[in-house]
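User: Second chain of the day. Same drill as before.
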Amino acid sequence: MLNRYPLWKYLLILVVLLVGLIYALPNLYPADPAVQISSTASGAALDQERLDRLTQALEDKDIAIKQSELDGNSALIRLERAGQQVAAREIIDERLGDAYTVALNLADATPGWLQALSATPMKLGLDLQGGVHFLLEVDMDAAVEQRLEANASAVRDLLRDERIRYRDTSIDGRAITFQFANADDRNAARGLITDQFPDFEYSTPDTERGASLTMTFTDQAVQDLQDYAVNQNLTTIRNRVNELGVSEPLVQRQGPSRIVVELPGVQDTAAAKRIVGATANLEFRLEARPDTPEREIETLPFRNDEGRSADLMRDIIVTGDHVSSASRSFDENNRPQVNINLDGTGGSMMSRATRANIGRNMAVVFIEHKTRTRTVMEDGEEVEKREAYTERGIISLATIQSTLGNRFRITGLESASEAGDLALLLRSGSLAAPIYFAQERTIGPSLGAQNIAQGIMSVEVGLLLVVLFMLARYKAFGVVANVSLGLNLVLLVAAMSLLGATLTLPGIAGIVLTLGMAVDANVLIFERIREELRAKMPVQQAIHTGFERAFTSIVDANITTLLVAVILFSIGTGPVKGFAVTLSLGILTSMFTAIMVSRAMINLTIGGRPLKKIWI
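Assistant: Same format as last time:
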C-alpha cells in the first residue's frame, strides 16, 4: 500500500524527536551569574552562619540574590543580575580577607533530572555572553636575546669546567662575543664549544688586545626559535586560561607572531589581563662571594623592600621552566608561601648546586618582562613606540642549611593573592618570550544580552515569515511543513548542545539561514506533487512520486551547501566556524525532518486512504 511506513520507522522517528526534545530543554534554563567562595587556608572554615552574614551584606548593598548554597568548605551565591558580580566579589573580599578565594562564575541552572541524563545547554560565545578579546604580540627580539643569554651562561659554565680563561662576554643583536687573553685560549674554546652549539656560525674578529670569538645565530636557528616561542606561548596561555576556569575559551595563533585570546563570560578584565599577559619566571641564584670577579656579579633589588639590594652570581642554578607543580599554602606563622616541585633535571641541578654551597645564601629572583610606550619625534611628528624592558627583583634570600632536592618552598611573599598568582604562573608554565597586548576589546554582559535578544528576534521573525508563506502557498501541506520546521529547530538546538558547540552571533545567522533553507526540500516535494496531480495522476500515487523524484534534487542541493560549510569550517576563524557548524548541523536536521518527518505525518494522516482531492 502506498504512503505507509512500517512500525519500526515510526518508532525510530519518535525516538529521535524525543531525544532531541530532552537535550534541547536545558537551553530554557540559562546559567545564573554567581560568586564562588572557597577557603585557601586550613582553619578558615566556611559555615552557614558566615554565609548568611555575607548574603545579608550583599542585600544591604542592593545586590539581588537568587540563591546561596553551601557545599563542604565552599559556597556559591547565585545573583539575579550579571552586572553585579564584580561588586559582590569586592564586598565579599573585603569581609573575608586573604584566607578565601572569591571567583566569578556561571552556575548551571539545569534541573537535576536533565543533568542525570548529561543534558547541558549550549555554550555562548563572546559576542553573546560578554567577555574580553585580547590580541597578543610575541616579542621575537626578546626571544632571541633570552636564548642568547642562556647559551652564554652555558658556555661560561663549560669554559670554567675545562679551566679555559676568558675575560668578558657581550651580546649584540644575534651574536655572543667572548674575549680571551690570547689566541691559544680562544682556539681551545672554539674547538670545545663548536660541536655542542651547532646553531651558531663562528668567527674570530680582530681585536687590539687579546683575542675574541663571536657566535652568531644562523637564520634557520632564529626561524626555529621564533616558531618555538609562539607555539610554547600558545600552550602556556592555554594552560593559564584553563586555570582561570573560563567556559569555552578561544586561544589560537594568528599570523607569524600573534595570538588571539577570547574569554567569554569574564568580567574582571584586569585579573584576566594580569594572568594571561604575565611573563613572570623565577631564577635561583647564589649570592656572590666577596672575591667574585665583577663581571660575574649582578646587583638586584628586593621586590618588597625598597632600598635593599644584594650582589648575586650571574649564573643561574635553575629557572621556573623546571617547575613541575606549584601550589599556594601558609607556613606555621600563617604567612603565604609557594610550595615548589621540580622535575628530574631541575632537582638534580638544585641538589648539585646546594650540596657544594651549604652555608651560603641563595636568592629567589622574580623576573617580569614588560613593555612601555614612549613618544618620540620622527620627521617632525610625534610617534608612539613600544619598547620592552625587564624587571628583576629578589623575593627571598636565605641560607642553604642542607642539600635541597625536588621539593622546597618560597617565602617572602606579600599576600595570599600574590602567592596564588605566582603558583598559577609557575604551574601553567613560563612564556618562552615576552608578549604585549596589541589590541584589547571588552564586551559587557548587557551588550551580550542585547545581542541574544536581537538574535532571538531575528529567528522569530524569520520563522514567522516562513510559516506564513508555507500556509498561504500549500495550505494543509503547509501545516505539515511548518511542524517539521519547528521540529528541525528543536533537533538543531539539541545537536549543538550534545556536541558542545558554542553559539555565536554568526551562529544565530546560520540558524536563520537554516530555517529559510529547511523548507526548500518541502517546496521541491510539494511542487513535484502538484505537477503529478496536474498530469491527472491519482492522489496517493502523486504523493509517493513527489517524494521519490524530489529526493535526488534535495540531496544534491544540500550536499553542495554542506561541502561549502565544511570548507568554511576548515579555513575560517572563530565567528566563521560558528556559522559553519550551525549551517552544517542545520542541513542534516532539515533533511531528516523534511524527508522523513514530513512524510511520516502525511502517511499517518492520509496515507493509504482513497482520496480524490488534497489541499496543496
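The chain has four domains: 7-27+444-606, 32-107, 136-257, 280-443.

User: Great, on to the next one.
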